[in-house]
Amino acid sequence: MDARPLRVVCYVNQYFGTLGGEDRAGLGPQAMEGAVGSARAVQQALGEAGTVVATLACGDNYAAEQPERAVAELVRLVAAAGPDLVIAGPAFLAGRYGVACGALCAAVQAELKIPAVTGMHAENPGVELYRRQVHIVSTGGEAARMGDEARRLVALGLTLARGETPGAPAVEGYFPRGVTRNVVTAASAAERATAMLLDKLAGRPFASEVPRPAFPAVPAPRLVKTLEGATIALVTDGGLVPRGNPDGVEPLNATRYGAYSIEGKTGLDAAQYDNPHRGYDTSWVKQDPHRLVPVDVARELEQQGAIGKLHETVYSTVGVATTLAHSARMGREIADKLREAGVDAVILTST
C-alpha cells in the first residue's frame, strides 16, 4: 500500500446512520457522502491515515428479512465507492446489525478482495456466524465508548489494508478465527509446556497456546424407571458399520450416521462388519465388534432381567473431526428416533 490516505467506506444501520429508530428499520441500502453518524468516530480515529469517502446505511429489518438482496446491493455500493478498506459497525449487542455487518464484510472480502473489519460484543450472534471469515473486534455491549471502539477497529483495519499480518487475537483484540500460524520463540515447546505446568500447579496465572473450546454443559437426565424395566439402546461414534458401509458414513468429519438392526442377534459377527473410522486403530474392533458395541453383554443382561429390553437398532457414526454443528444435528435426529421408539436410556460408546 502506498503512502496516500486510504479510502474508507463505513457501514451503519439506520439508527447509527441518524436516519431514524425502529420505525425506519425497513429502509433499503443507501449511500451517503463522507462520514455520517457513527462513521464520524471512524473518521476521527483515522486522522490523516484515511478518509471516509462514503457511509452506507441499511435498515435492520431490511437486512434481516432479505439478507441476500441487502448484501448484494451493499456490495455494489461499496464497489462504486472504490475503497481500500471497509469498516462495519461496531454493532455492539445489536443482533440484526451484527449479522449484517458480518455478512457484508465476508462478501466484500470474497467478491471485491477488499479488506474489511467489524466489531461487536461476544454475545452478538454475528460473532459465531462470521468470526472465522472476518476479523471481528471484541467490543462492549453499549455505544457509550464509541470513540474508543472505533479506534480499535481502525487500528486493526489499517493493519489489514496495508497488507500486514495482524498479531494474535489476544494482542489485537479480535475474536479467534481458528487460524494457526507458526512463530519462532526463544523457549522450546518442552520448556514452555513445563513452565505452564509449574504455573498451574502453583496457582499462578498462565495462558495455554492451544485454548480449549467452551462447550455448553448438558446435565444428564434422570432415569425415571428402574433398569429392570428400561429399554436400553446402543449408540456409538466409533464408526462400526456393516460391510460395504451402506450409508456412506465418512471416515472423518462425518455428516451421516447409520441405523442397523440387531433383531434376533445375540452378538455381532466380525465378518459382517467394518469400520472406516480414521481417528484410532480399528483393527481390534474389526476383530471383535463387541469391543465397541457390546451387543453380546447387553443380550446377556436382557436375558438375566438386569435390563428390561435391548433396543433392536444400533446407531453409529464417526466422531473424529466431526463439527459441533453436525454432531448436534445427528444427535437430535437420533434422539428423536429413540424417543419415538420408547427408549429410556442410551449406552454411548466411543473410541
H and E order: EEHEHHEHEHEHHHEEEEHHEEHE
Q: How much helix, percentage-wise, in residues? A: 25-40%
Instruction: Please indicate the percent range of residues in DSSP E strands (runs of 2 or more).
Output: 15-25%
Specify the oligomeric state. single chain
Shape call: elongated
Distance between the termini: 51 Å
Mean pLDDT, nearest integer?
Answer: 93
Strand order across the biggest sheet? 2-3-1-4-5-6
At the fourth level of CATH, the homologous superfamily of the largest domain is Response regulator
The top level CATH class name of the largest domain: Alpha Beta
CATH topology of the largest domain: Rossmann fold
Question: How many DSSP helices?
Answer: 11
* Domain module count: 2
Structural class: alpha/beta
- Uncertain stretches: none
The second-level CATH architecture of the largest domain is 3-Layer(aba) Sandwich
**Total strand segments:** 13
What gyration radius follows from the Cα positions, in whole Å? 27 Å
Major beta-sheet overview: 6 strands, mixed
